[in-house]
Amino acid sequence: MRKIIALIAGFAVLLGGAVAYVVSARHGGAAVNAVAVSTGQTLALEPSTLFFRNLADGPDRGKLAAVPAADPAAARRVGELSCDRFAAARGTAICLRLKPDSLPPLTEMIVLDASLKEVYRATLPGTPSRARVSPNGRIVNWTLFVSGDSYAASSFSTRTGFYNLDNQHIIKSVESLPVFVDDKRYFASDVNFWGITFAADGNRFYLTMASKGKTYLIEADNANYLGQAIARNVECPSLSPDGRRIAYKQKVATGKWRLAVLDLATRKVTNPPDDRLLDDQPVWRDNTTLLYPLRAPDGTTDIWSVGLTKPPTLLVRHATSPSLGGGQKP
Amino acid sequence: MYLAGTRAADQAAARTTPERTVLGRVPGTVVALGVVSLVTDISSEMVTAILPLYLVFGLGLNPLQFGLLDGLYAGATAVLRLVGGHVADRWQRLKAVAGIGYGVSAVAKLGFLVAGSSVPAIGAVLAVDRAGKGIRTAPRDALISLSSTPETLGRSFGVHRTMDTVGAALGPLAATAVLWAALGNYNAVFVTSFSLATCAVLLLMVLVPNRTRLSTEPAKNKPSFRTMLGLLREASFRRCCVWAAALGLFTVTDSFLYLALQRRWDIDGRLFPLLPLGTAGAFLLLAIPLGRLGDRIGRWKIFIAGHLALVVAVLLVCGPIGNWWLALALHGAFYAATDGVLPAAAGPMLPKELRASGLAVLQTGQALARMVSAVTVGLLWTLWDVGPALLLFTAALLTVTVAAAVIRPLEAAR
């Protein structure tokens, strides 16, 4: 009998503690924004605006925020839209966000017009990872992390797809893209694709293919739906506005990458003067400037800017997923 | 026939075991261990379900960094299972060692709060969690085995594995509920998971009786590690281990079967993670009836029939006929006919004081064989594509299964 009482007392303490923790977690968020935020704004895609996901503590954490690109320290303008990943170009934007309370996780892929009004939505399996809009504003693409191969959580894969606004055609996964490596058709069960970047013509695109521990830069043609490996050890490619260079994350060790730039004509790889660890698809602000989020040692994420040869500068604190309202400057 | 058979078995049970039985003549200890496993599985599957979200969203990590660790953990778990089984027999403290295993996994849940976003720390927490699972498995199965009469072992393991699976199916639901209540706070899931896992340890301590004196031998005659391996000198047990491992060598891993199934019937990616629930559903329906059938007609027959069910399931996935739910049902039947049936079949061959060691040897051999199988299927898949890889593998499984059925390694022992 004493044992049963001890059991019930133990349950009460343990489960009561868990309930108390859950209740306190509900009230855990900061009530006031840690940075200047103007709420209730109507945002629209303008080339002179820098968009990002606001990560500053407060009620508007997680919302899509806008600041003048020339004055990134200005008060952040936010509306109602929340995105985990955001990108824009030529009057079209893509917003990826995790669908609340979905297990296994689902992502809402939302296509928005110039006034950030929804024009298309798809719900896809996985968690948001990368998002881009083609320079002509007609194709949006995304990469999601999927962990559904089994209940074993430690096996992950990526799923990359795109949506064409002109013919409303969605490709949920490019895994069937025929790829040639060293002029031979490549077959493997473990192929993963991620990080698409489109060229100005809206047909040619680049992306990363991973298989058997190697990564390849694939140059692909949407009309013929064919791809060819043109370089190795290139992840999350981002094509410059003039189409001459590809900025990417270059692997330096397992789980560690730094920023690098490949010149497509000369195949020469250079490293911009920022050797800190990076894990995202870089954004070209113009033909010589790159934007990217970096994790600070304290665990927060900030948006930085670096020139191909000019030193890095801090652009926006507590922010991620940068994008210019009009896309890259041509 | 059926009634007479079970009654005879029940009378035998009544004669040989002093253990009180509940829930339709299942020993109380087995039900208690089932409850412990149910609560533990809710706790662990809660974490498993949110882990990808937590890593990517909570911490902003790149999950591909974790991919390679899986195989390593499986190997370490296999070795720790041997250690857990051996130590439990050496101390003659099955319940205590199982309790340590459950406790280690419970504490690991709080490790996530401490580990923060450090990749090595998270890897260490996952390793500790799985180490706990490795330690507890053999003494727990030995407790089930020792608290049942040899005639009803299949039913006991069936009941235990069914309750275990119920917990695993409830875990993701519990995680969703906690995330919803805590407004997306992942730490709340870890804290709740820790609370449930600790409740399970309390349940084990209170509900499962101590079995201190297992042997009539003097306590100083402690089994050594060599005694454990010496069990393999016993012919019937060795055959059991060898054939279980041989079958494991050609058993298609779940993830490959699900991938092939998704391709064959073009299943929506959103439904893909739910496929294991189909397997679990069939398992829930069949584990107890097949365990009982094994008690009556012979457990090895059921074990062999289970592998035939897997052969048919893979053929359906490769072939032009059938449908996905039939393949999943057969996959569930395979587990129902093998997972609890194998320890039930092997238990009576092992001396009581070496039950945990023996079950550890058996299950470790099977687990290592299945790891080799996973690597082999992966290689064949890469070389030849899905269809040929699975077909060749299944042909091999069919051959070994037929050989095992013809040779009947366990003819003497049921």
From TrEMBL, chain A:
What SUPFAM superfamilies does the database record attribute to this sequence? Answer: DPP6 N-terminal domain-like
Q: Which Pfam families match?
A: PD40 (PF07676)
The record, for InterPro entries, names:
6-blade_b-propeller_TolB-like (IPR011042), WD40 (IPR011659)
Quote the protein name from its UniProt record.
TolB
| Provenance organism | Kribbella albertanoniae
Q: What is the lineage of its organism?
A: Bacteria, Bacillati, Actinomycetota, Actinomycetes, Propionibacteriales
TrEMBL record, chain B:
Asked if Ribosomal protein is a keyword of the record, the answer is no
Q: Which PROSITE patterns match?
A: MFS (PS50850)
The molecular function terms of the Gene Ontology recorded here are:
transmembrane transporter activity
What the entry lists under SUPFAM superfamilies is as follows: MFS general substrate transporter
Which Gene3D superfamilies does this one have?
Answer: MFS general substrate transporter like domains
Coiled-coil parts of chain: none
Tell me how this protein sits in the membrane.
Answer: Multi-pass membrane protein
One Pfam family name is MFS_1
State what protein this is by name: MFS transporter
* Protein source organism: Kribbella albertanoniae
Positions of transmembrane segments: 30-57, 63-83, 165-183, 189-208, 240-259, 271-290, 302-322, 390-410
GO CC, sorted alphabetically, is: plasma membrane
